[in-house]
Amino acid sequence: MEYRRLGRSNLRVSRLWLGGMSLGDPSLRPWVADRAVSQAIIAKAVELGINAIDTADAYCAGISEELVGQAVADMGNRDELVIATKFGLPIESKAPNRSGYSRKYIVRRVEDSLRRLKTDHIDILQTHIWNAETDIEEVAIAFDWLIQQGKVLYAGITDIPAWQVAKWIYFAHYRGLAPLTSVQHHYNAIWREDERALVPLCRAEGVGVVAYSPLARGFLAGASRSTTRANTDELIGRFYDREADRQLQAEVARLAAAAGLVPAELALLWTLGQPHVTSAIVGPTSVEQLVQLVGALDKVVDDHALQSISALYAVRPDMGHG
């Protein structure tokens, strides 16, 4: 496993992160792994050299965080791992101040996540789905306070507009606050909108970029309508339903077969092959899937195949999450 610095920080993270969205309770999301399989996946990921685990308070209503916390406690290797979590979505109530990014809610959610994760600090705290009404300066100040308290070590965001990221970076710099260390964003061969503004900003300012959905929620892995996730994950149809997307899916499958790979391996290697990507987050639902994805890191794809995939991209009229 290769490890890279996350942005300008001295923190080193594995090229693959284990994603917690697929760990939890199938009764809440039919395509996620159950508790026993989730524990096995986490243990195997660490055995294979993955040192970063990404989860969120909204994943299976907190069960994902609980599973991660218990697995790490059982392994007894907390200091060797980088635990990242996210917050911002309503998970218990839609009442005012029970979601979003007020300082009041940020502090509350961190305390809850610490309890579920069975730890005294969160390595990387990240905002989740962005709320356009948010005052970014209040968020930066709240993160800085949590870092000063030792409850959070690094600040990160997920899927917010580039201009808001810029405000955070420069506000923190000129106020002497904890810097923004990482950006986690939706990125794969058929969703590349952040290349317009966010990616150049992060590269210029030394912010680490972590790609989630490198396999397009399984769409680029050759997932058919016969799979549980393809039939129950509504975001596949919402994000990847253009004719251009299906053409690119077919090209990935064709090029993978020619290279002796499966489509999931080639799709992952394309994402990791982009120069701005520090790491990619994968969300296997079985140990076998995890082993295959980690094994892809040792495989070589010629530049022509990667360029052929890149050339088929069709720009979307909307930006960001969509």
Question: What this model shows, in words?
Answer:
With 322 residues, this protein is α/β, with parallel strands linked by helices. It has a single domain (3-221, 272-298), classed as NADP-dependent oxidoreductase domain (TIM Barrel, Alpha-Beta Barrel), CATH 3.20.20. The protein is built from 12 helices and 10 strands. The chain has helices spanning 35-47, 63-75, 103-117, 136-149, 162-175, 198-205, 228-232, 234-239, 243-259, 263-272, 287-296, 303-311; strands spanning 3-5, 12-14, 16-19, 52-54, 82-87, 122-127, 152-158, 180-186, 208-212, 279-282. The protein has an 8-stranded parallel barrel with strand order 3-4-5-6-7-8-9-10, surrounded by 6 helices. A two-stranded antiparallel ribbon has the order 1-2. Helix 2 links the parallel strand 4 (52-54) and strand 5. Helix 9 (243-259) crosses helix 10 (263-272). It is globular. The mean pLDDT is 93.
> How much β-strand is present in the residues?
5-15%
* Estimated structural class: alpha/beta
Number of strands: 10
Average the pLDDT over all residues and give the rounded result. 93
Instruction: Give the count of structural domains.
Output: 1
Judging by the overall fold, what is the CATH architecture?
Alpha-Beta Barrel
| Main sheet makeup | 8 strands, parallel, barrel
Coarse shape: globular
Distance between the termini: 33 Å
Number of helices: 12
Task: Give a brief rundown of this model.
This protein has 322 residues and is α/β, with parallel strands linked by helices.
